[in-house]
Design brief:
This protein has helices at about 35-55, 65-100, 115-145, 150-155, 175-180, 185-190, 200-225, 230-265, 315-350, 360-385, and strands at about 170, 265, 275-280, 295, 300, 305, 310-315. It is mainly α. The chain folds into two domains: about 1-100; about 105-385, Cytochrome c oxidase, subunit III, four-helix bundle (Four Helix Bundle (Hemerythrin (Met), subunit A)). The chain starts with about 35 loop residues before the first helix and ends with a helix.
């Protein structure tokens, strides 16, 4: 039988009820396809619907029983969605685990004739993902160009003869790069005594490098899995190691992302020449709730305070929300890739990837390259500009 299952007399019958299974293509029958993707999609939809409803509701101590019943049903919707999603993932993994690669179903209709069905599916999935991130980027561009920049707005208000009057809590756009690349007022206020303006660009730079390298290691895993000159033991070990490195880099990315958002980091002891401190974005008051952010246009390091007349209070919730929704959505995709990679590492070391079914790594690689590409766009848009 040739690779891809083109031998019409071969039947890939799997006795497990989890299988892909019963590919009875020899008698003209259609493949018995999996319900797992539908379960995953339906479960995700229910979970996200319940998630948004639960976390946008206000729980009032004086609420009546009807209100509590509604809230409880929304939580139930969230739990049901998570359960269906988990069941779909379980079925999908069990099916993939039992798939030896002896048969790869092909599309028969136009325009995908003779193309692997799984490859068609992953490209359709990536097109839907492109819509998601296109919406996020178009929203970012719309608000970025539609709101006055906080810095420009303040500068125009202090120009001689200016008629611009700033109101406390006025809404404007203060880009994430103001906090990430320039430091922000609260960073300067807390650390000006060190004699430099700290920044938080290092995590973003490390993350960019990590994702780019991880795309390379996933290609090495695919190349090694297809190598027929290696023994089974050597192939299993190398593929497992390359996938493990990819998983490590993905974990590094998400770890630095959480540190950047919530923790911050410090290198060296205070007072030493190599001391470096970068507070988290949350500690620097770049949050989705910041309707009264204290903006300082000119900071007096000697007085450790903003120069009189150079301070204003702005509402920066829109710019913060756009940043966290976009980077958070990307982070969720990275986490999903990490879950898949953890499974793939286990399968690889157990001999699950051979030249016959190495294409499974390629399909995951398409998704992972997409995640990498999105970050290459996110990094300059939010971190540098």
């Amino acid at each position: 039988m040739s690779y891809g299952g083109h031998d019409d007399h071969h039947h890939d019958h799997q006795h497990s009820h989890w299988g892909p299974h019963d590919w009875d293509h020899g008698h003209g029958g259609a493949p018995h396809n999996s319900w797992a993707p539908i379960m995953i999609a339906f479960g995700s939809s229910l979970f996200l619907l319940g998630f948004t409803k639960v976390f946008t509701q206000t729980w009032d101590d004086e609420a009546d029983l009807w209100t509590y019943a509604i809230h409880s049903s929304q939580i139930g919707l969230l739990i049901a969605g998570l359960a269906i999603f988990s069941a779909g993932i379980t079925v999908f993994w069990r099916q993939d685990w039992s798939h030896s690669g002896s048969f790869e179903p092909k599309a028969v209709g136009t325009p995908f004739r003779t193309i692997d069905i799984r490859k068609v599916a992953i490209w359709m999935f990536l097109m839907s993902e492109m819509m998601v991130f296109s919406s996020l980027f178009s929203t970012y561009i719309r608000y970025r160009t539609g709101f006055d920049n906080c810095v420009s707005l303040f500068e125009s208000s202090i120009e001689p003869g200016s008629t611009v009057v700033l109101e406390a809590g006025q809404q404007c756009w203060l880009p994430a790069s103001y906090f990430i690349a320039e430091g922000g007022y609260h960073q300067a206020n807390a650390h000006a005594a060190l004699g430099f303006m700290p920044d938080t660009l290092i995590p973003g730079a490390i993350n960019t490098f990590a994702l780019i390298v991880s795309s390379y290691t996933i290609v090495l895993a695919l190349k090694t899995a297809k190598d027929t000159t290696l023994s089974d033991a050597e192939r299993n070990s190398k593929v497992g190691k390359y996938l493990s490195i990819t998983l490590f880099l993905a974990t590094l990315f998400l770890t630095f992302k959480l540190i950047e958002w919530f923790v911050g980091f410090e290198i060296g002891d205070k007072g030493d020449w190599y001391h470096f401190y970068a507070p988290s974005l949350s500690a620097d008051h770049f949050t989705i709730h910041e309707s009264e952010y204290t903006y300082c246009h000119l900071y007096d390091e000697a007085a450790h305070a903003c120069t009189p007349g150079n301070e204003a209070i702005f509402d920066i919730r829109m710019s913060a929300s756009t940043f966290y929704v976009t980077t958070g959505t990307h982070g969720v995709h990275v986490f999903g890739g990490m879950v898949a990679l953890a499974y793939m590492v286990l399968k690889a070391f157990r001999g699950g990837y051979t030249p016959q079914n190495a294409v499974s790594i390629e399909y995951f690689g398409l998704y992972w390259h997409f995640v990498d590409l999105v970050w290459v766009l996110v990094f300059p848009a939010f971190y540098l500009y």
